[in-house]
Amino acid sequence: MTPTRPVRTTVHLVRHGEVHNPEKVLYGRLPGYGLSETGRVQAKRVAEHLAGADATALLVSPMQRAQETAEPVAAALGLDPVTDDRLIEAANEFEGLTVGVGDGALRKPEYWPLLRNPFRPSWGEPYLGIAHRMLGAAHRARALAAGHEAVCVSHQLPIWTLRRFLAGQRLWHDPRHRQCALGSVTSFVFDDESLVDIAYAEPGGASDPTVTGA
């Protein structure tokens, strides 16, 4: 009997474009943070990058910045976006605050207990929880687009956490070393349910991974 060939499916994880955030706060899951003009340009570049993809499914985080990033992508691919709450930004106790080193909330002793365990992390949603929900969303996208390609629009930390999880790396990490620029595309290639490759592109251009917000 001839062995059955595995079904190859690629799931593209898109990070949203730059956000209009003049106060430079960590906005996290707060409502009302949409794309800046630069962010809209980045979203269009992502759409151009993905225009030739054989995509049959588009899943999007419920956050405004992700929904706005998905608009030109949906138009380029001829797909209706579907909101998946598992693609949402990570929860963070510092939402609405400035958290730069040497200023903002990190200077105030009342916030120091939130920093007690960087390996979990203690200031927000556990890395393992992020990885598990993102994996669920990725496999939903893979199943919907079996044999083709799928696009998921999400956020920096969730995408980077999923990548580290699938690569078998420890989940706690130095944020300065995240490879997940604004308007970037991290692509996971599956044969059936098994990961066989990870690729990365920056159609939106390079950006500082430590910029406040995500």
What does the model show?
The chain is of the alpha/beta class. It has 4 helices and 6 strands. It has helices spanning 37-50, 64-77, 127-144, 156-166; strands spanning 8-15, 55-60, 82-83, 149-154, 185-191, 194-201. Strands 3-2-4-1-5-6 form a 6-stranded mixed β-sheet. α2 (64-77) links the parallel β2 and β3 (82-83). α1 runs parallel beside α2 (64-77).
Structural topology:
Elements: E1 8-15, H1 37-50, E2 55-60, H2 64-77, E3 82-83, H3 127-144, E4 149-154, H4 156-166, E5 185-191, E6 194-201
In short:
The chain has helices at 37-50, 64-77, 127-144, 156-166, and strands spanning 8-15, 55-60, 82-83, 149-154, 185-191, 194-201. With 214 residues, it is an alpha/beta fold.
State the low-pLDDT regions, or none.
Answer: none
Q: Could you name the CATH homologous superfamily of the domain at 8-19 and 35-90 and 125-201?
A: Phosphoglycerate mutase-like
Write the CATH architecture name of the domain at 8-19 and 35-90 and 125-201.
3-Layer(aba) Sandwich
CATH topology of the domain at 8-19 and 35-90 and 125-201: Rossmann fold
Structural class: alpha/beta
- The number of E-state strands comes to 6
Strand order of the largest sheet: 3-2-4-1-5-6
Average pLDDT confidence is 93
Q: Rounded to an integer, what's the Rg over CA atoms? A: 17 Å
How far apart, in Å, are the first and last alpha carbons? 50 Å
Record keyword descriptors for this entry.
single chain; 214 residues; alpha/beta; Rossmann fold; six-stranded mixed sheet; 27% helix
